[in-house]
Amino acid sequence: MIRIGYGTDIHRLEAGRPLIIGGVGIEFDNGAAGHSDADVLLHAITDAILGSLALGDIGQHFPDSDERWKGADSLTFLRHANSLINDAGYTIVNIDSVIDLESPKLRPHIEQMRENIATALDIDTGCVSVKAKTGEQVDAVGEGRAIRAQAVVLIESSSVTSDK
Ligand code: MG
What we know:
CATH architecture: 2-Layer Sandwich
Number of domains: 1
Radius of gyration: 16 Å
Bound molecules: magnesium ion
Oligomer: single chain
């Protein structure tokens, strides 16, 4: 049995906030606003993993009203979602994702993001795709007011017997 999941997320950009994407801290004037570390890419991937087995969304599992998750490392959310699908007998086949951000350029950081995600999920880096695009100066992303990410994940049951 194979299943697919999709996740998306958006955060406002604000002065004085850290910019953390895919577990990589990036030097920039603005960072993403949010209750946790506001890692938009990890939130989108976490939602995609949860969605693959219809396990709800990141807000249900890690509500922003909960002080435990204030400033939380979003790799924690990613690992938890993965453990839920592992417990159900599934493993990740591959992930594809897109980050929309006007600036700074993300290309120098993409490989580290892929490694961080692959390590957290215990899968090969070759199974994790991260792409980056600008907003072409239009919309909230293009005007530098927001960062957005989208992700799809394919999962498969780990054993033949769990197909039934
Ligand atoms: Mg988020």
